[in-house]
Design brief:
By secondary structure, this protein is mainly β. The chain contains no helices and 13 strands. The strands form three sheets. Strands 1, 2, 3, 4, 5, 8, 9, 12 and 13 form a nine-stranded antiparallel β-sheet that branches. The protein has a two-stranded antiparallel ribbon with strand order 6-7. The chain is elongated.
């Protein structure tokens, strides 16, 4: 085959259903329900043919999230900037032990647990904190930033990629990892009506 080495490609597709409800002008509650379809493609050095690329899949309901956000400054009075803080909980609704048929070196297929990178869930209940804020810098130019951190108290979900080896049980068991995200940049309204906004950011 033309493929060499063991190049792994992961393709993730997700459909998120999000709903928010404003209890007041400053307080809102949110829920996010994800459905994911993930693919892991890799090259296998086979004893039957030279090399071949094959794919395995994991799909289903992901981990549902609930959250609450609060504007620190009354939006009616925050003409030049504001800060929103939030907290939430992530439920273990997504499966973390999905199995599929994986091609083996002799050409046969074996049903195995999928790589953690494509599992719909991580198997743990997590707690999150977040913030987002903006500040007017000059006329219609604003600076903004947002960050998110998910704490997963559970260290592992008990799923083994392969049969546990005595004395090395902790090395091939799937973890319940913390997650984090941060983004900051600038945005500007275009035109007198400012119905179009352009932004430049890094994360």
């Amino acid at each position: 085959g033309k493929d060499r080495g063991n190049a792994v490609n992961i393709y993730s597709h997700a459909l998120d259903v999000n709903a928010s409800y404003g209890i007041t002008d400053r307080l809102q509650v949110n829920v996010s329900v994800p459905y994911v379809h993930n693919e892991r493609s890799q090259v296998l050095r086979s004893t039957v043919i030279d090399t071949t690329r094959y794919s395995v899949f994991a799909q289903g309901l992901g981990d549902v999230r609930f959250g609450v956000n609060y504007w620190v400054i009354d939006p009616a009075k925050a003409h030049h900037g504001n800060l929103m803080i939030g907290a939430g909980v992530k439920l273990a609704t997504g499966k973390h032990d999905v199995m599929d048929d994986a091609l083996q070196a002799d050409g046969s297929k074996e049903r195995v647990v999928m790589d953690q990178a494509i599992q719909p869930g991580d198997g743990g209940v997590g707690f999150s904190v977040e913030f987002q804020g903006f500040r007017q810098l000059f006329n219609n130019i604003y600076g903004f930033a947002n960050a998110y951190y998910l704490f997963n108290p559970k260290e592992s979900n008990g799923t083994f990629k392969s049969a546990p080896t005595k004395g090395l049980e902790g090395y091939n068991v799937y973890a319940c990892p913390d997650q984090y995200f941060a983004r900051a940049g600038f945005m500007a309204g275009i035109g007198k009506a400012q119905k179009l906004t352009l932004s430049l950011a890094g994360r």
